[in-house]
Amino acid sequence: MLPQSEVPHFTHAARLAAGPRYDPSMHSQLLPILVLLSAAVVAVAVVRRFRRPSMLAYLAIGMALGPHGLALLAESAEVQGFAAFGLVFLMFSIGLEFSLKRLQAMRTLVFGFGLSQMTLTALGTGLVTVLAYGQDWKSGIAVGLAVAMSSTVIVARMLSDRFELHSRSGRQTMGVLLFQDLAVAPCLILLPALAASGDDLLRSLAVAALEAVAVLALLIWLGKRLVGRLFDAVARVRSNELLVLTTLWIVVGLSFLTAQSGLSLALGAFVGGMLISETAYRHHVEADIRPFRDILLGLFFVTVGMMLDLQYVLANAHKLALAVALLIGGKALVMLLITRAAKTPLVASLRTAAQLAQAGEFGLVLIELARQLQLVSDSVFQITLSAMLLSMFIAPFLIERAARLSGDLGRGDWAHKATVIHNIAVHSLDLGQHVVICGYGRTGQRIAEFLGIEGIPFIALDVDPQRISEARAQGINVVFGNADRREVLQAAGISRARAVVVTYSDAHSAERVLHIVRGTRPDIPIVVRTADDKDVARLKAAGATEVIPEVLESSLLIAAETLVQAGIPMKKAILHVRAARAERYASLRDYYDALKK
User: Fold this and answer.
1) How far apart are CA 388 and CA 374, in angstroms?
2) Tell me, which fold does domain 53-411 have in CATH?
3) Neighbour-count burial for 62-81, b at 16+ CB within 10 Å, e otherwise
4) Which residues on neighbouring strands pair with residue 528, listed in sequence order?
5) Alpha-carbon gap, residue 371 to 196, rounded angstroms
């Protein structure tokens, strides 16, 4: 044994460099994290394979591995803390999307449909809670507000994937969801006031509202003057790391201030997002913050799933079945009545009703807050939470089923389609030997430009009203219509056209277009754009004359530019590109062979 004077002396830096000593407890701490990550990788891969929202995977993980399931994950302060940050970043993202211009443009849908849906659903649910479940009126308000929320995460993702965001039902649905997002902030103020109030409820609510308005007004007033200047200064440093750190500082700082003022963390995050949305850095910040938001929000949904007591659910299956039926049926009925009262066609009304007939992520937040504030009993919390979660699992299937059903009804609903079909027919009436462009995005616009230079007539079909309006103002022949509908293509003069080009990247819709066109015109050339090579074989088998993968084209251009910059003559670089294209595209092979001869 060495004498004390000869014992090596390690500095703090040396101890750090040597690494931490092995602690047996670290193994037990890492195991739950490993289990959670393993389950997340498998579950998210499965739901994304079937084109379902990732949120459903996280909820299922929490239910299966939580304390009421296999008990592999336990609730802890650390997990709850991370989950709270997930909610904070969700509210921050909603704030980023908040825009006074957008609100002004959609004011009728937001405050007409949205306010009506929220009020009627909350009142109906509250009455059921009071009369059928024997709860007091405060519990009825809490449950009613929670159930009135629908899932922005599920619905917006599905509408985007199905290219229905700009359809009539899509715009109505997004208007209602926007109002619900705005209503979260008042709800986060209302529930604590209900829990804290004694006999003088109106006085307590008034005091809480005044405090909230004062704090938020001060934060917004200061934020408008400081946030833009702060981001301008950060941008001059040209450090992406500093921009992310500044964003996190604003989100956490405002959340801390609102929490210290007796309000919620999420409310401060919403204000932070709203302030940044008014700056020129909105989209950059949104892209940078997305990884934090998605991971932390996933953990939030895991903790929500962990709250579900499966034994209670199985023991009360009859009550739960009734609650799910009332939730889905009641919300759908409310929205159906509102849209029909506004003279919305039956097809769009059915779609809108199905798209909003589920609970939402903010509803889960509100019902959990109500439980913490003891506004609802454990039994009411469990039956409500279970019904809300099940409705969210059912939602994707219900939306797809309603779309198919409304499509079947719509095929005979010529009163609804007559205007659209007539408008397309009018714009294609004088055309012959023209090109039908399906989709008028950036690719469609470039094709139209080239066709115009060559004097080739065309008609373009698109579903974005703003894009159509801008093109029509320039005298370009673009009309509203879904290109994967047989009657739309017939009205566009597919029988007289010389070619069809599908410019959007949705392979499923492109395949439907191919089947429709080939059923009418087996001989017509059809060019289809796709994002990459994975759908080429399927689209070619469906009848595409040629399929153009964007990845291939961009790689060829980058390769050619690289050769030129490296000193290779441009003519030789272009020959390389031509050879690669000729090898890939059958229609160019003969042309290139002729050039070589």
Assistant:
1) 19
2) Na+/H+ antiporter like fold (1.20.1530)
3) bbbbbebbeeebeeeeebee
4) 502, 547
5) 14
Same fold across 53-411 and 427-544: no
Burial of 269 (0-12, 13-18, 19+ CB in 10 A): buried
Helix (H, G, I), strand (E, B) or coil at 528: strand
User: Which tokens sit at 476?
Assistant: 């370009």
CA distance linking residue 58 with residue 107, whole number of Å: 34
Q: Kindly state the tokens that stand for 75.
A: 């609730």
Give the closest residue to 152 by CA, choosing from 98, 105, 197: 98
Q: pLDDT tens digit string along 137-170?
A: 889 999 999 999 998 777 876 776 665 666 678 7
Judge contact between 129 and 135, C-beta under 8 A: yes
Tell me how far apart the terminal alpha carbons of the chain are, to the nearest angstrom: 89
List CB contacts of 566: < 8 A, sequence separation 6 or more: none
Q: pLDDT tens-digit profile of 196-221?
A: 765 566 776 677 667 767 777 777 78
134 phi-psi bin (left φ>0, alpha ψ -120 to 50, beta other) = left
CATH architecture type of domain 427-544: 3-Layer(aba) Sandwich (3.40)
Q: In Å, how far from its chain's centre is CA 376?
A: 31
Cα separation, 185 vs 74, whole angstroms: 30
Every domain of the chain and the residues it spans: 53-411, 427-544, 551-597
User: Global pTM?
Assistant: 0.60
The residues facing 548 across adjacent strands are 529
Which H helix or E strand runs over 478?
strand 478-480
Dist CA 461 CA 484 (whole Å): 10
Q: Which alpha helices (DSSP H) does 162-281 contain, by range? A: 168-196, 201-237, 240-260, 265-277
Q: Which two tokens stand for residue 580?
A: 């690669």
CB atoms within 10 A of CB 299: 22
- Bigger pLDDT: 31 or 57? 57
| The pLDDT of residue 303 | 78
Give Cα 345 to chain centroid, integer Å: 26
